[in-house]
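Data card: per-record layout.
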Amino acid sequence: MPIEDFCDYLMIAYDLGSLAGSSLVGRREEWGEKEVDLYENGILPFLERENFDRTYRALTEHMEAGLSVRYVVLTTYADELEDILLRDNPPVDFKDPVLWSDPELLVIRVKSALRPNIYNSLSEIAQQDFVEAGRCIARGDTKAGVLLLCKVVETTLRRLYKEVTGDTDTRIAWEEMEKRLRGQDRPKFEPVCVRSKDFRINYRNPAVHEEKQLDAYDGQEVFNEALVLISRIVKTMPKTG
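The structure for this 241-residue chain is written out next.
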C-alpha cells in the first residue's frame, strides 16, 4: 500500500481534530482488512505516540497556508512512514510456499524488496549477498541468511562512513563508525545511527556471538529490519541520498 494512500485517511483524523478520534468504519470494504489493520496498528499509533504534537503544529501552520494534509504528512514523515510500511508489510513473505519452489521468482522478489535506486546503489558484492541472504532464509538456512544481511548492512554503513569522513580504514568497528558519524553531524546522522545500533545489538551481535537457533520467523524479522536500515543508510549518503 503506497504511503500516499495512507495520507488520505489521515485527513479523516484531523477533520475530527484528533488522531484518536479518527474512525475507519466503512473503510474495510474499500481498503481491506490487512491495510486497515496496518494503518490502525502501525502508522496511527506511531504518530499518536511519538509525534502528535509536532504533526499537529505542522498541520495547523501548513493548512493555514493552504497546503494539504497529504503534503504535510509526506514531507514531515516520509521516511518514518516508509519504514513502517517496509517493516510491517514486507514485499517478501518467506512463508509463501510458492517461493520455495520457484527460485527465479524468489530472486525477483528479493531484489525488488528494495527500491531500484536503493538496490542499484549497493556494491555488486552487497547485491549478491542480499540476494543470497534471501535464498538462505527461504530454504531454511536462517543463520547463514541473517549473517549475510548483517554483512550487507555493515558494508553499506562502512561506505557511508567512508564518504562522510574520508577514512578508508577497513578495520574500524561498527560501533565506532556510529560514534564518529554522530561526531560529524549529529542531527543528520542520528536517525541512521540509532537504527544501526538497534540492529547491531538486537540482531548482529546475537547472530555472531551467540549459539542461538534461528527459525523462519527470525529470518523474516531480520530481513524486514535490514530493508529499513539499508534504505535509510543509502538515503543519507552524500552522493545518493
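Known properties of this structure: The longest helix spans residues 142-165. Residues 62 and 68 are 8 Å apart (CA to CA).

See the next section for split statistics.
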